[in-house]
Amino acid sequence: MAKTTCAKALQNWEQDHPGEQPSEAEDIRLIFQNPPLDKLDPPVLNTLAKVKRLSLSSNAIEKMVNLPGLRQIEILSLSRNNIKKIAGLEEIGQTLKELWLSYNYIERLDGLQPCVKLHTLYIGNNRIKVWDEVDKLKDLPEIANVLFVGNPIYENQKDDPKLLVLKRINTLKNVDGTVVDDSLMEKVKALGDGVPTTTVK
């Protein structure tokens, strides 16, 4: 089946936003294209020099790529695609604040290290099976809001999985939509020293 290209998706956007130029826009949403987008096209997307929020959710994109032209990007949404690996963030890590990746096929949290401003990561309903992957978020100095619901690591836990996330990263402000307050942190302390480390089979 034919796929929509990024160039065509931007043409569709221009038709829906008469008088506006994509290169000048701060908020561009190319969600749920019909037929869907299946790949990111750097020469096209790099023209979006002023975009702060770029949404490409609900398509069929398989790979993340470097997009150095997005010099002001703060929110990147790639939820509900076919992505298996976090990549291509080296050039936008200095400005990116929110990354939405829920409903993909991601198993590992490698590739986030360049994102020194990232405070929100939505990565629910992926394929994260190893609790040690959560530890990789400790390298993100601004991370405060995460969503892990729907990943295999949450299955068959006798304790609330949110508490297990907080046990590993106690600087978070919100986990799975729940604000972290003193009562929640008291529950974390009550868990003791043990944290799950095994791979979910």
TrEMBL record:
Which residue ranges does UniProt annotate as crossing the membrane? none
Q: Does the keyword Repeat apply?
A: yes
Q: Which domain of life is it from?
A: Eukaryota
Sorted UniProt keywords: Cell projection, Cytoplasm, Cytoskeleton, Dynein, Leucine-rich repeat, Microtubule, Motor protein, Repeat
Q: State one Pfam family annotation.
A: LRR_4
The subcellular localization recorded is: Cytoplasm, Cytoskeleton, Cilium axoneme
- Read off the InterPro entries from this record: Leu-rich_rpt, Leu-rich_rpt_4
State a GO cellular component annotated for this protein: axoneme
Q: Member of which family?
A: Belongs to the dynein light chain LC1-type family.
**What name does this protein carry?**
Dynein axonemal light chain 1
Source species, please?
Paramecium primaurelia
